[in-house]
Design a protein that fits this description.
The complex is a heterodimer of chains A (about 260) and B (about 280).
Chain A: E1 19-28, E2 31-41, E3 46-50, H1 57-64, E4 74-82, E5 85-86, H2 94-100, E6 101-104, H3 115-126, H4 131-144, H5 148-151, H6 164-176, E7 182-186, H7 194-207, E8 212-216, H8 220-226, E9 229-234, E10 237-243, H9 244-249, H10 254-260
Helix pairs in contact in A: 3-4, 3-6, 4-6, 6-7
Chain B: H1 2-46, H2 49-53, H3 67-98, H4 103-117, H5 120-132, H6 140-165, H7 168-176, H8 181-192, H9 194-209, H10 213-216, H11 236-244, H12 249-281
The chains are: A alpha/beta (about 260), B mainly alpha (about 280).
């Protein structure tokens, strides 16, 4: 365990962490990318992960839903507890873990199927629902992603026919359709225009009442605007973690200060 | 002064290079055009209703057609496709999704590349010893197996290449909603790469529909309608081989007709494949 002090949420959140990471190391083959990461993610809040390129932000996030396991050369050491249960425990069902911990990627990745099917696919995968129930859930998910009004007449069009920002919201709808507890967002706005970005930020604001959100971002204004807590990563270490306000106004660490004032990164 | 000389030399070289490569292309096109023209001219003369509906006539008897060979080729190719395509498809899936960086995957990929270069007559002889000698007769089955073996590496490698073109982000986003891997492959990857996969299959079909050597030792030929898949079976390529060597003018004529028929079919399949591929890249 490292000597980074985990802050208390105080009045800011339910004191029981949604996700607790303890002593997390990550390896790409022989190359170590994360070093004894410790962090507690507050339930129903937005936690931003910031830091310079290549510091391990995305790598860290990709452990939470074990998506890195697609690549055989990548492996971890340490523990990630979701609601107190280690996600690497043999009793944890991988597919159910991924249902509970959804993910939004940097580039929008609609499936090669219709808008409706993009959302319905995951629902059918995890729940036995009737046709009318399915329609209702798809509508609900699209409303949850603030996309329904724009696509209600385009449900049979291919998902790839939507604009970039709409595609990203379609991916959010696809993720929330399977009723996750956590949403991981890996630089969700870095590939879309400013207006679409503003829409997604607004959406994240609205979603946090229902979901625990962890967002990796390169954009410090974005982190300051939408997050409650911020973790600063540097060279695979979590250098500083605390309330966003404190990190941006009164950082304790010199590296954090240098980064947020734009002196490097 | 020296500089100017150098520039002139380069210009001359440039022109020489253009002339040589242009001429090489022209020579290639010339022979290809010659073949196409000859086959089309001679073959068209053989086309009539009888060609597509009648059995071959015995030597000396006027008329007759290649209906049995057309049917035989169609059936053997279809059978080969049914065997070779699923095998090739799943081998390609293994290479791209599971065995990418494994030693076994490398071995499979290497074997596929080698198999692609094996002369088809060797495949024919192999199947001959495996499926013809023990049963003591030629059969459509044996012919189809030989063609399937030729198709397998073509389909496997195009499948691998096409699946490799699908971005990893799409794989990850499918897995991220809790989709099992097999389902991600069939529902998402196959769909994303569908026109590329279909193109690979069509090109493999086109490739084997012109093969003669593997059928010579396996399906052989027959002057009759096929009675079953375990019988020697008439097919277009072996018919061309036999009839073109015969001393009878009307048989030679039929061989030209068969050549044109195969050529037109392969051309049609290629155009279809290209159209599909163009749609994909759009």
């Amino acid at each position: 365990m490292s000597d980074v002090k985990l802050p208390l949420y105080g009045e800011m959140a339910d004191p029981t962490p949604k996700i607790s990471v303890r002593g997390l190391d990550f390896f790409y083959g022989d190359h170590q990318a994360l070093f004894s990461n410790d962090i507690d993610i507050a339930p129903n809040r937005v936690t931003a992960v910031i830091g310079p390129s290549g510091c391990g932000k995305s790598t860290h996030l990709r452990v939470y839903n074990r998506i890195f396991e697609l690549y055989r050369e990548q492996r971890v050491k340490g523990a990630v507890l979701l609601n107190g249960e280690n996600i690497f425990a043999p009793t944890v069902k991988l597919l159910d873990l991924r249902r509970r911990v959804g993910m939004i990627f940097q580039k929008p990745t609609p499936f090669p199927m219709s808008v409706f099917e993009n959302v319905a696919y995951g629902i059918r995968l995890h729940y036995a629902v009737s046709k009318s129930e399915l329609d209702g859930r798809v509508e609900e998910a699209l409303k949850g992603a603030a996309l329904w009004e724009e696509v209600r007449d385009l449900l049979n069009r291919p998902g790839t026919a939507l604009s970039g920002g709409q595609q990203q919201r379609l991916c959010i709808a696809r993720a929330i359709a399977v009723e996750p507890e956590v949403l991981l967002m890996d630089e969700p706005t870095s590939a879309i225009d400013p207006i679409a970005t503003a829409k997604i930020e607004e959406l994240v604001e609205g979603l946090k009442g229902k979901y625990t959100i962890v967002i990796v971002t390169h954009n410090m204004q974005q982190a300051a605007r939408i997050s409650d807590f911020t973790a600063f990563f540097f060279k695979g270490y979590i250098i500083e973690f605390g309330a966003t306000k404190q990190i941006f106004t009164n950082p304790h660490n010199k590296k954090t200060e240098e980064y947020i004032t734009g002196r490097f990164g | 002064m020296k500089k100017a000389d150098n520039a002139r030399r380069r210009e001359t070289l440039d022109i020489a290079m253009r002339v040589v490569s242009g001429a090489a292309s022209l020579i290639g096109i010339f022979f290809l055009g010659w073949i196409l023209w000859t086959v089309a001219r001679q073959g068209l003369a053989a086309f009539n209703i009888d060609f597509f509906t009648e059995l071959p006539a015995p030597p000396g008897v006027e008329g007759g057609g290649l209906a049995n060979a057309i049917a035989g080729t169609a059936i053997i190719t279809l059978l080969a496709t049914l065997m070779g395509v699923p095998l090739g498809l799943f081998t390609g899936v293994y290479l791209s999704e599971f065995g990418k960086s494994t030693r076994f995957g490398g071995m499979v990929r290497f074997t596929m590349n080698i198999t692609m270069g094996v002369p088809s007559i060797i495949v024919g002889l192999f199947v001959y010893t495996l499926l013809v000698l023990p049963f003591k007769h030629f059969s459509a089955y044996a012919g189809a197996v030989a063609l399937a073996i030729i198709m397998l590496p073509v389909v496997a490698r195009t499948t691998e290449d096409m699946l490799n073109l699908v971005p990893n982000a799409l794989r990850e986003s499918a897995l991220a909603i809790g989709m099992p891997r097999w389902r991600m492959i069939i529902a998402i990857l196959f769909r994303a790469a569908r026109s590329g996969l279909l193109t690979g299959i069509l090109l493999a079909v086109a490739r084997v529909s012109g093969e003669t050597a593997p059928l010579l030792f396996t399906a052989m030929s027959s002057p009759y309608w096929m009675k079953g898949l375990a019988e020697p079976t008439a097919n277009l390529t072996v018919t061309i081989f036999n009839y073109a060597m015969s001393p009878f003018d009307d048989w030679k004529q039929l061989a030209w007709g068969a050549s044109l028929f195969i050529m037109a079919t392969v051309l049609g399949v290629n155009i279809l494949a290209r159209t599909l591929l163009r749609e994909r890249t759009k």
